[in-house]
Amino acid sequence: MSGLRSSEFRVRSSEFRSRTQNPEPRTQKRASARGHLRLALGVLTMLLLLTLTACGRNADAAPTPPTIHYGEDICEFCGMITSEERFAAAYVTSDGHSHIFDDIGDMFLAHLKMQEEVVAFFVHDYEDESWIRAETAHYTLSDELPTPMASGLAAFTSTEKATALAEELGGEVLTFDELMAYYQENPPAPNLGSAND
Predict the structure, then answer these.
(1) CATH class for the region spanning 85-192
(2) How many CA atoms lie within 13 A of 73 on its CB side?
């Protein structure tokens, strides 16, 4: 029995030594919990930084043209339904708002009337109907070209195609800046103003 007691004493003695030499289990649990909390906060901080970095990059991203629902969406200048993709136009303002138009001419007229800070103008290529930047497009202007609001304007990616249509219809080829000047010099008649008049 005394052997039993001495072994029992050794076990209790070693437990006592381990408790006095090592921190309490509760203290270890607290330290472990603090470590996990620090790790979680570190991960959250990294995720927040990555999110902010990604948002910052989006702010610098090039503007994109809006989605137009043809046959449903209304031209913001004349109030007519936007139905022909090849003549539809749009611009995006500095606050990120997109304005859509059923005719390229309406886009120019609206911009001159509203004097909004525009970050990008968009038109459709007359042939393939893809969105292109209006500032770099080449335009055919002809009274013989039927367009939704009678502007007689068609946009092209290439100057050659704009020239070919202009020659066919007896019109002229203009750049974006030339068209802006044209509309400044030739404002619409009072009864052709916007739907908001």
Answers:
(1) alpha beta
(2) 21
